[in-house]
Amino acid sequence: MLQTMAYKVKQFNLSGLKGISDKTLEMHFKLYEGYVKSVNELNEKIAEVLKDGRVDQDEFPAYSELTRRLGFEYNGMVLHEYYFGNLQKQGAGIPSSDSDFMRATEASFGSYDLWKTDFVGVGKMRGVGWAICYQDPTKGMISNHWITLHEIGNVAGFIPILVMDVWEHAFILDYAPAARPKYIEAFFSNINWQAIDGRLRKDVISPSSSAA
Ligand SMILES: [Fe+2]
Asked: What is the pTM of this model?
């Protein structure tokens, strides 16, 4: 891969969040940088295999293993960017009543509270992974999904709207493993709801919602 095509680490200015310490964030940024580096390395190694214009038979086992790892490393990179990108200092806690996200929760779940109950429930599921609220760009519907590791459960073509890391590294310096619900509460108090609205496709949200 051409050097200019390599992924670059993005910067996020988040120090001073409620209930998620700067120490946790610094460690988390380092982990994220590791994913960016791994993606670039994998692409370089695959480009090396392809250099002579073909995948030789003796290269096939290594080539396959490199390619299999793309899903883990790419999603590890991208999901962290969504995660840091949906946090902010002095978050409002809940979206404003006239926001597009509020409208989307009402159209898909009947109420914001029920949407939140589901999203928090997904976040409390046992295992290592992510809770993600996706929007179906064709129907406008939003739905909450559990992602195992970084790559199992993502829905192709759906738009990640709200992304919550529930790997223990996201909170272990601030909370015990069994106190994940406290971390989820802290996460919610730091959500950047404007960024969430910015990710939504407004034109496809069901107009049938009457709760607004
Ligand atoms: Fe993480």
From this structure: 0.94
